[in-house]
Protein 1
Amino acid sequence: MIELTPAQRRELRAKAHHLNPVVTIAGNGLTPSVIAELERSLQAHELIKVRVQGAEREQRDALMNELCTTLNASPVQHIGNILVVWRERREEDKAAAEPLQKRSSKAATAKSAAAFAAAARRAALAKAASETRRPPARASSGRIRGTGRGR
């Protein structure tokens, strides 16, 4: 297991607050398929929540320890039926993920550039349409001048 300092644990708890559980462990416990899914989730997200159903507190504590030793992860928090676990991404998968991130960022840039251009065209059309509907501007002093009558 990886040991975390109290400051690291506090920061990870804050980040995990808004996460939803990605894996649910029920009556069968840590089966190979559950371990494989936890492995994939940790590799993808680093910080995950796990929901445990149908277990008492002592069983959940033992499950957390077993889970962390099996996956070489670090326990962050255990509140009720929710376990929070953290593990840094493994290097071999980081190198494989980098080209995908570069490709997706180019696609996202192209998509956002096209969206920006479309929004600019819509704004220009809306401005032109509003100018054609608007009556010509006139001086608005509140009184008509030059009539010779005082009101």
Protein 2
Amino acid sequence: MKPPADLRVRHAMNATAATNSLFPTTIAGSLPKPAWLAEPNKLWPRWRLKGEDLAAAIDDATLVALKLQEDADIDIVCDGEQSRQHFVHGFLVAVDGIDFDQKVEMGIRNDRYKAMCPTVVGELRLRSRVHAREARLARAHTTRKLKFTLPGPMTIVDTIADAYYGDRIKMAMAFAGLLNEEARGLAADGVDVIQFDEPAFNVYMEQAAGWGIDALHCAIDGVLCTTAVHICYGYGIPANIAWKAGLGTEWRQYEKFFPALAKSRIDEVSIECINSRVPMSTLRLLDGKSVQIGVIDIATDKIETPEEVAGVIGEVAKHVAKEKIIPSTNCGMAPMRRDIAEKKLHSLGKGAALAREKFG
């Protein structure tokens, strides 16, 4: 059931009033799931419950995720992806044309690691809305701006086997159409920001500048809210940490497609900054875009100090207009210890507040 129009308008007005105008904070998307909901400290955890008990527990976990963010002074909150076992496959479970029993071992992210992936066996269609329940629940229980995340088309096709379309671009456009259906629904539910997660963009740079952005444009067509794309070096799992260690002293991959991204219709770009080797001057290539900057490292349990967070914001402010900077996390926090993630949230909120004092 869709929230009444007057309720959605009132939430939107309150959200605008409650958001800090300088350095508004957000998170990349996921938070650890409570141990009573799913296995802790795993990227793809098994659920503890089934059926209606699971649905009710997900509702409870979503409300807890909102409260954790509000208590940490996060301005643009999200559902914490509590309803999804995995950021890609949480969307795919609502798609017809995919056989989850026909799994294929694939090298994904250009063979960075292998995964057992379901197979596209027919024309892709949405059975129903995918995230209406959690989006409407979140919208009804926070007056802050609400962000919702969806997997990007390129990342989906890099995480699934194809036995039907025979062409990655054709399949990506098919998924983009489904994402557009869901994104339009989320915007109607009162979501303020819809973010598409595209870690594949920093692996397939030339394609990202071409059909990757084309697919995003299809996904955001007619979506009446702010749109964002999250590009990162991945969760803090061993395969990603090892891969980053071999990328050299400077990570300059973004230079290959940031100019194309700057010309795109996407409103915001989310990237990894703290403890990365991305030259901050690279951000100048995103002129005109709002930039969600990662100021919290999700690949370590070390808790950042507010001073460290503010320091990253200050460095970015040398290259990006202050009013365009949105402090965030480097990536999702799903596999982290819950207590560590909560402390990092508070460092994010306090660090942004300190940056407003120093640079405002």
Protein 3
Amino acid sequence: MAVVETEQHGQVLVVRLNRPERLNAMNRELRQEMARIWTDFRTSAEFEVGILTGTGRGFCAGEDMKESLADGESEQPDPFMSLELEKPVIGAVNGFAMGGGFMLVERTDLRVASTNAVFEVSEVKRWLLGGCDHGAIANMPYPVAMEMALGYRFTAQRFYELGFLNRLVEPDELMPTALEMARHLLTLPPAARVNTVHMMRQVRPGLTARQQELARALHQHGALSDRMESRAAFTEKRAPVWKGWDDPGDRYRMPTLADIPG
């Protein structure tokens, strides 16, 4: 059974994550297959629009921590993850979109979700810094961006009301709605569609270069052993034992933007 399946609907390519027994969590094999499919899609003369969805009750539960502890991550270039695709991708979110699964949704250009979808930015649970950029990229108000960064869960209804989702539908209407959105895109002049998607991506909000440098510093500001402890505790189904800081005084010696040249 392929870990990623594809379907052709005219000029539309449906990409379906297919590890339902793991809520489509991303292991090395899945990452490599996704990179291959999106690379082929990028230069294909057949396809103009992509739809990304999942099999079963999960869109994508994020990193498969059990396997990543042993195997590490794939370094194969993926034009979807690097935002280099010149073609629009519609996210059809059918269930849990957590951590890396949320990041997949974030990289789509248009989004439809089923009413039972659940979203979570999970970095704060696995690293030394929460997902501070996601709320900015989504252009959310500060308290909502803070809620996202601190790992709270969001229902599809709430994200629809906040403007993160374009459509909210019952589960059996998910793919028909995504395909309807794709068909609209195909009615547009090809250059207008491609140029507009490219321009809209350029004007998305994001962190400044100095803010990104501060985030890199904060990713190292604490006991690095807590990163692996979070994964080990999750896979072993136990409560984590945190260290926090190698030097307790470091919690009061925070890197700031004033420390970043520029």
Protein 4
Amino acid sequence: MNKKKLTKRELRERQVFEDKKFNRTLLICFSSLFIFIIFYLVFHTFWHDTKYTYRQYALYGKQVPAELVCMNGDKLLKHESIKLSYKGKKYSFCNQDCYDHFVDHFTEDAFISDPLSGDTICKAAALLGLKNRGNPDIVYFQNIKTFNQYYKSRK
């Protein structure tokens, strides 16, 4: 085996080439890491807003869970609500102030009419849905039949 000896010039050229290759690899790695950290921080910072916007579109035409709604303001929430009992029924609220307002104005806030049948229903026993796609307003239904009819008529 005959090994070729490198001249000083060839050795310098090889070293320069390897340094450039290392620098390019280092630049790519740190750039990727920097971009990943930026995306992570943005996603982490705006996670609740992202979930909220997603729910406004994804839950349209589907039953909305009561723990995502404030029954005092009839709005979809960014966070989970608290469930509190009043007169033997469980209602969902965004905070204690909404609950206090609800208790003070029970007859006006606890009952609502079904959008199709017009029957008065209790919010605690109603099915919940979104009024419009991309909008946080909640609509209450007496039963699954009126729920399905409402969304079929809106297509």
